[in-house]
Amino acid sequence: MRILSLIKNILEKEERFLITSHIRPDGDSIGTQLALGIMLHKMGKKVTILNEDTVPKCYSFLPHSDWIKSSLNNGNQFDAAIILDCSEWERLGKIAPIAQTADVIINIDHHADSHGLGKYNYIDPSAAAVAEQAYHLLKHMKQPLTYELALCLYTGILTDTGSFKHGNTTVTSHHIVSEFLKGGVKPDFVYRMIHERNSFPSMLLQGMLLSSLQLSNDGHVAWTSITKEMLKKVGYTVEFEPESVLSMMRSIEGIDVALLFRDLGEDKIKVNFRSKSEVNVCQIAQKFNGGGHKQAAGCVITGNLEMVQEMVLQNIMEMLNYY
């Protein structure tokens, strides 16, 4: 693939790199950032990994997770910026203007609606995760697949496929992951680190969400909401990974779409979408300036909780009627 050769030339030629990804980073963005950062560091390059948000606790086990910063000293200059898992400048938040100062911009993304943010765009919607694309880049550059690289990239594929249960999981995904297992990655260890280190307050919150679960009249849509009142009870700083609740809602017989609403304050509501059928929830998220993938997407909508719920549910029901 020609784009891999072009990116390889840049990575070998340039010296100062910025690696960044979208706001509220997930396992795919964080794992891939660290993998490319580790690779470039071993090549003798100067690497800065920068996100608007800090690393969630569930990914702190990854090697060199402390390399990821959320602020930058003045005066930093970059020969190249590598933008991962992101199809719009706005999704970088406050990091966007910093990335735009780089002499060269490389965009590696697997979102179907991505048109590229730079001169060098490696866009592959068939990839289950941007970690898969990074794996192909590493192989093209003939870089050895160390345990650290395998662990970071495995985490990326694991999380973006919903532990291999989403429809984006492919033969290629499993083939790549088999290489990581040969490299020493232990699936049980990674699963424990990501999913079995919940705090007591987060478990209390999960119980509240399940107890307030609602179903549509036809039984095809399930939703629940994280309200200000809930956060007041468990603490506003509680770290909460939505995937467990969404997976449980998605597992209900007859459910096609699961939704989690979260009141962020200041009339901002975050919405997580999951589906387990042909329903493309990314199309709904895009209507509200969000994005993602066919079976997993998200967005942030301005408005109060009740208003946002009504708008989203109306769009979901219209889509289900179409199907």
UniProtKB/TrEMBL annotation:
Protein name per the record: DHH family phosphoesterase
Coiled coil spans: none
Pfam families linked: DHH, DHHA1
Residues of the DHHA1 domain: 245-312
Organism field: Candidatus Desantisbacteria bacterium CG2_30_40_21
Every DDH domain range: 17-157
Molecular-function annotations in GO: nucleic acid binding
Annotated signal sequence range: none
